[in-house]
Amino acid sequence: MLLQPVILSGGSGTRLWPLSREAYPKQFLPLTGEHTMLQETVRRLDGLEREHPRHGAGLVDPIVVCNEAHRFLVAEQFRAMERRAAAIVLEPEGRNTAPALTLAARIATAEGADPVLLVMPADHTIADEPGFRAAVSDAFALASDGAVVTFGIVPGKPETGYGYIRRGQPYHGDGLEGAAYRLEAFVEKPDAATAESYLASGDYLWNSGIFVLRASRWLALIERFRPDIAEAVTRACAAVSDDGDFQRVDPALFAACPSDSIDYAVMERLTAEGESVPAVVLPLDVGWSDVGAWSALWEVRARDAEGNVCDGDTFVHEAADNLLIAQHRMLAAIGVNDLIVVETPDAVLVADKAHAQDVKAVTESLRRAQRNEYRHHQRVHRPWGAYESIDQGARYQVKRLTVKPGESLSLQMHHHRAEHWIVVSGTARVTCGEETFLLTENQSTYIPVGTRHRLENPGTIPLELIEVQSGSYLGEDDIVRYEDRYNRDASDC
């Protein structure tokens, strides 16, 4: 029996704005350590086969389901770890966790296998990783015997921001090391008084969103409870195509799939049904957090003697219990308590920790106004490297481009702008019209409006280049691509 991790990486992380943006959400950020949250999710199972040889044998590479716009971020983060994914499955449009898991289950069983799936969000943190692996070992044993297993987080406070699980009678399975219980019901987020009563009773656990079950079991349950989702995903998967590191499904057919969560689509109906399929919850007390708000990040990060979390160039005086993050400038906090202050090159957030959930009001306003700060950071990542806007005004924009060794931009043309390129370091191979030539440090060239051109880095060190754009329209969508090694279209800037 194989254990197949499935990592769901579709979240947008808007409550951690301005560090998290739509195009670069929190799962791709190193919020709690040197590795990003996605990388920590992958690495969390390291040691499972050694520590639990009976239940850890057969651990295979993960399947990642992600938004198509994030595909290069996922691939790059796996390469940075020198790991590989069994598949990176692209969702043309977000349809919530039930269709995403159905996609993964279809991919996992495509060649006749029926692994146990360990379904994990990409943006959670767990402090006690050996404890988590022990729980996975127990869940694997239960799921191998046909149970549908979820983890319930042992609550440490009367939290109103999480859904809850009500546990039932003890459940006895072969080889269990920890406690297991019948999953009696899923409960919506409570008010404060109800949360207090849940904590006092001892029968309620936070809903972790982590599930363990056989792939065939999930496919049978989704076909029973939500045949519309099962049919739509099956049709979309009928012609899965490979695109480099990625697997694509039919975008029009997947767009027709209803949106629903694993909880609503299957788990709540399963617990209401009774005993036909055992639904089991394992209590988990391993320092779990979904890092769903700035206040949650403050709770899981190391703090100084006054309770401050300080990241970057910061200074504090007579200040306590603050979260202070400085990315671009020096940040000083004097005589303030319980604040969140997050400084990035293009935006600053100041909020009371008690109002951490209200950050969504900012992101919703930015989205309605179609402000760039909602979607992108000042430094925008591309599969070939990154660019950063340095200055802009009427009819001009200045950018800093970094092209990774061996990478290249597409062969392209702009209708409304010309470009001047100045090499700061490294070597550039430039195609301009019918001519191709090399530029080195302190050399420059000019790309006229309407001219086909390409920028490449043939060297072994990053190419740093200043680009000055001038013209009547400078938007990223003013691009016609003729050739692109990353298979992007004009809308995929």
TrEMBL record:
Every MannoseP isomerase/GMP-like beta-helix domain range: 318-366
Pathway listed: Nucleotide-sugar biosynthesis; GDP-alpha-D-mannose biosynthesis; GDP-alpha-D-mannose from alpha-D-mannose 1-phosphate (GTP route): step 1/1
Residue ranges of domain Mannose-6-phosphate isomerase type II C-terminal in the record: 370-484
RNA-binding as UniProt keyword: no
Any Pfam family matching the protein: ManC_GMP_beta-helix
MF term (GO), any: GTP binding
Keywords from the named record: GTP-binding, Nucleotide-binding, Nucleotidyltransferase, Transferase
Reaction(s) the record says it catalyses: alpha-D-mannose 1-phosphate + GTP + H(+) = GDP-alpha-D-mannose + diphosphate
EC number from the UniProt entry: 2.7.7.13
Highest taxon of the lineage: Bacteria
GO biological process terms, semicolon-separated: GDP-mannose biosynthetic process; polysaccharide biosynthetic process
InterPro entries in the cross-refs: GMPP_N, Man1P_GuaTrfase/Man6P_Isoase, Man6P_isomerase-2_C, ManC/GMP-like_b-helix, Mannose-6P_isomerase_type2, NTP_transferase_dom, Nucleotide-diphossugar_trans, RmlC-like_jellyroll
Domain Nucleotidyl transferase, residue spans: 5-305
Similarity section: Belongs to the mannose-6-phosphate isomerase type 2 family.
Name of the featured protein: mannose-1-phosphate guanylyltransferase
